[in-house]
Amino acid sequence: VFPSLAQAQASVANEVYQELGQPSVFLFCPTEYCSSLCSPSPSQSCYLQTIGQELLPGISVIWTGPKVVSQELSAVLLEEVEAVLRRRPVIWDNLYANDYDCRRVFLGPYMGRAPGLMSRLHGLLLNPNCELQANFIPIHTLGTWFWSELGSCAPPDHAGVEAVAALGHSQSAQDGSYSPQEALELALRDWVAEINQQALEPGK
């Protein structure tokens, strides 16, 4: 029925999206969802070109970066992806994912993401460690990164200022820069406080 896989996928996705009344959040994960899966590159991929052309503009497209688990995300790559998809991507960030290797647990800060990246994104989803307790630092430092990105995009509103203050009066968060080391120290301080609080609860 369809001349290509991309056209088939776009057609089905468009039909489901319209049948559901064009919801404000509708995510599409392409077969080529990172640079290493594209042939020969994201900008020259016939598959992604078709997806960009055929997929209705209200549908968001998931992207993981250069690889399935990307150590770095650059603005240059996201510009290329945005151009071929004709929309800003939603990053599905596998930086902390360990479902493919249960021996691996990443407790470090959110890092390797270029400053000013948020303006290139339609959204960001974090794929965490499978172990719930191991995600305090990843999620906490992601929050610090998020507020620093807000600071670099536009002057924060009153709520934004309060949220930055709640993160520990971090100067880097307030001036729009992000320091993974500072973010880690803030997260560790709050994690120790959380552990101590839980230790005082009955039955712990």
TrEMBL record:
GO terms for biological process: glycoprotein metabolic process. Gene3D superfamilies: Glycosidases. One of its GO terms (molecular function) is beta-N-acetylglucosaminidase activity. It comes from the Eukaryota. Signal peptide: none annotated. Residues 1-150 form the GH84 domain. Pfam families: NAGidase (PF07555). This is OGA GlcNAcase. It comes from Horornis vulcanius. The gene is Mgea5.
